[in-house]
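From the methods appendix. Each design record in this collection lists the tokenized structure first, followed by the designed amino acid sequence. Records were kept in a plain field format so they could be parsed without special tools. The example shown here is representative of the layout used throughout.

RECORD:
FOLD TOKENS (73 positions):
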């Protein structure tokens, strides 16, 4: 189950996970907040990184302007 649909829209799960990353967070923090297994959070984060909705600095992920736009749009 992906977080971004082929048309570029977020799935419901994708929107929930991206919202959990509104403030900088680690994969572990996102998994805990969304009540998902860590592997699922990491999979979503990889998808968001590839779509340039997130950036990574150390072990922390930050939402990009594109990520904010995706949530607000």
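DESIGN:
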């Amino acid at each position: 189950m992906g977080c971004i649909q082929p048309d570029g829209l977020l799935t419901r799960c994708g929107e929930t996970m991206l919202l959990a990353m509104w403030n900088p967070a680690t994969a572990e923090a996102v998994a805990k907040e969304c009540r998902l297994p860590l592997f699922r959070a990491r999979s979503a984060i990889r998808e968001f990184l590839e779509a340039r909705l997130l950036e990574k600095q150390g072990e922390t992920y930050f939402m990009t302007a594109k990520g904010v736009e995706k949530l607000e749009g």
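APPENDIX NOTE: The first helix runs from residue 12 to 20.
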